[in-house]
Amino acid sequence: MRNDKLPPVLLRLALWAGVAYFCCMAVAHFFGLKYPLLFVYYDVPFHAYQDKIISFAVVAYVCLFANAALHRSGVPAALVALGVTVLGLSAVNASDALGSVLDGRPTLAYWLQTGLIAAYFALLLGLYAADSRFGTTDKR
Predict the structure, then answer these.
(1) Tens digit of pLDDT for each residue in 51-95?
(2) Which residue of 43, 62, 71, 90 shows the fewest CB atoms closer than 10 Å?
(3) Whole-model pTM?
């Protein structure tokens, strides 16, 4: 049985904010615009072709979050993807591979960005949990 209910308004707005964020991230990676938050590892060596690939992959996040904003049943998949992303960024931040290209520079900027993405994940999770607990889902 399909659940085509809309998420509640606050969760829906937060998900649409994610769509906008990931669209900006995809554009930044496609054009090599190395701005913090849109480009987590903004000051490390990179290859342009890798960033083009990342830009295409980020479109999957755009689709996941748009689907979740339109269908409550899509929210868990978006949450899993974002949660795994936070874990993956954390693993990269702590890795020797990242340390080897930083030449002794600190990783604080990457941890702060990862923390902001984790906070966004926590917000979405909290809004989804509140909806599940209190049954505030809007109907179409």
Answers:
(1) 999 999 999 999 999 999 999 999 999 999 999 999 999 999 999
(2) 43
(3) 0.89
For residue 4, the 8-state DSSP code is -
- pLDDT, tens digit, for every residue of 93-133? 999 999 999 988 999 999 999 999 999 999 999 999 998 77
> Scanning the structure block, which residue is given the tokens 């049985």?
1
* Residue pointed to by tokens 């649409």: 16
What gap in Å lies between CA 135 and CA 140, rounded to an integer? Answer: 15
Tokens describing residue 138: 């809007």
- What is the DSSP annotation of 22-74? HHHHHHHHHHT---TTTSTTTTS---HHHHHHHHHHHHHHHHHHHHHHH-GGG
d(CA 64, CA 76): 10
